[in-house]
């Protein structure tokens, strides 16, 4: 099974509503999209090409390389189809693998049973051919096999990522209610920020938005922070391909950049966590951190920059009545201190959003976990907005 050099269906998954930004990334890397859907895209590429994608993509979660598509009506048919595959050519008999799945079949009451049938088929096949049973379990840090099974249609994949790509590897201290790195990337990509003008992030929490902004502006890719992927544990893997791609990542980093990124928080602990995370990401010198109330954040003048808030939503943190006043203060701050900027508030609470007191020019849809969220965009005009010129009669 020459998977590293054979083109096949490859599914790139992402969190719901991040697909448009994932599509932008994939196209910018020179790949042709076969199909797109709300939680990802489909390509037709080799497993070797998956290596580049794993290292470069900010918005993706998993990159799945299809080994076989087949029909299976029940667990026994599934087992027989998988037993017929040359697993001994893919997984080291002395190695370790795990199984994940997405199953919607009337004969299956729990995905764990489907996972067990996949595992049994792989182990039985390798034992038959090599005389030794490989180890298996739930850890995703070695070879990972993924089953997609809907009704009678099944696909079996190699999960070339292993651990999710949505975590970018630099955030050693998450802080309270953190925004996932992939979501933060999508949020920044959806904004009007030009990656040159000021980026201001009051209420920075653990610093994810400010750090992702610095990473995007300097072209630092997630692959710089990670040294283990699922593809590394498939037989036939050539580590020189990985190291060659990693060298390209290092060469692409923009080192000399004039950039103003400001991150503030009322919590001294939050700012300390942000600084440490930024240092791990290698962008601590590009971000000015300060402990202060958001209303005291120093916004650079003459700006065509971006100010971006990710406040509490009132779901798990904070008190609702207190947050109403906070949201009103955010609106006042943007109106008074951020003239000429684009202002953004990311929230999962539409009632609180009404307290901002400004009219949004755009409402962008996201999910934060399972929470339906909006990023509200405000064009903060410097002075009085010029009226549109009338057409000559």
From TrEMBL:
In its UniProt entry, the species of origin is given as Pedobacter steynii
Q: Does the keyword Transmembrane helix apply?
A: no
Name any one GO molecular function: rRNA (guanine-N7-)-methyltransferase activity
Q: Does the keyword Transferase apply?
A: yes
**Higher taxonomy:** Bacteria, Pseudomonadati, Bacteroidota, Sphingobacteriia, Sphingobacteriales
What are the UniProt keywords, alphabetically?
Methyltransferase, Transferase
Q: What is the protein name given in its UniProt record? A: Putative N6-adenine-specific DNA methylase
In which domain of life is the source organism classified?
A: Bacteria
Domain THUMP: from-to ranges: 62-160
Q: Which Pfam families match?
A: RlmL_1st (PF22020), THUMP (PF02926), UPF0020 (PF01170)
Gene3D superfamilies recorded: 3.30.2130.30, Vaccinia Virus protein VP39
